[in-house]
Amino acid sequence: MDEVFATNRAELCGAVAAPPVFSHESRGIRFFTFPLRTRRLSGTADTVNIVVREALLPPEGLPEGMLRVEGELRSFNNRSGVGNRLVLTIFARELSPAEGPDENRIVLTGTVCKQPTLRLTPMGREICDIILAVSRRYRRSDYIPVIAWGQQARDTAEAAVGTQLVVRGRLQSRAYTKVIDGESFQRLAYEVSAADIFPI
């Protein structure tokens, strides 16, 4: 992947966790979605939702074993009232069988669209929450939550709204419990965990 000032690039390699299911149709093109499971070096698994055009799916089905996905990180607002309000998916542009270790690489160039928030985790680690607006064609943007840690968190917390940043990291999933009207629901939150951030 050419990472120099990539606007929005995603490259993942992992195991298909379930067969593709129909998602939606747009301009006569049918789209399907399936979960891809990638493992971190720690052994923790992230489950990422992949959206793909029907034409990219092999007639014989997705290969068993490892699959490489190249595409873009996309966001949309879920207005159904069920599940998370902000949904992150990988929009696949290429699918291919793969060998080797799991991969999960995201490279974004975008604009800080909300003042970053510096906070402490319950374990006392510094973390900074950033919302990055990443331009897409047709005057659209994807709004991507990014987290930074430690010194990088302190540095990024100083970024003003409108600052352009390059972010390299991984898309990770995080389970949490949400209580609605006294009832608990298990949810998954998605965010880019930054390995490297720098302004341009």
Given helix and strand content, the structural type is mainly beta
CATH class of the largest domain: Mainly Beta
Which residue ranges are poorly predicted, with pLDDT under 50 across at least 5 consecutive positions? none
Strand proportion, as a percent range, falls in over 45%
**For this structure, what is the CATH homologous superfamily of the largest domain?**
Nucleic acid-binding proteins
- SSE run: EEEEEEEEEEHEE
- CA-CA gap between termini: 20 Å
Q: How many DSSP-defined strands?
A: 12
Write down the Rg. 17 Å
CATH topology of the largest domain: OB fold (Dihydrolipoamide Acetyltransferase, E2P)
pLDDT average, as an integer? 89
Helices, by number, come to 1
Q: Quick one: biggest sheet?
A: 12 strands, mixed
Structural domain tally: 2
CATH hierarchy: architecture of the largest domain: Beta Barrel
Estimated helix fraction: under 10%
Shape: globular
Question: What does this entry look like structurally?
Answer:
The protein is mainly beta. It folds into two domains: 8-103, OB fold (Dihydrolipoamide Acetyltransferase, E2P) (Beta Barrel); 107-199, Beta Barrel (OB fold (Dihydrolipoamide Acetyltransferase, E2P)), CATH 2.40.50. The protein has one helix and twelve strands; from the N terminus they run ββββββββββαββ. Strands 1, 2, 3, 4, 5, 6, 7, 8, 9, 10, 11 and 12 form a twelve-stranded mixed β-sheet that branches. A hairpin with a 3-residue loop joins strand 9 and strand 10. The longest helix is centred in the last third of the chain and has 7 residues, at 150-156. The chain starts with 7 loop residues before the first strand and ends with a strand. The mean pLDDT is 89.
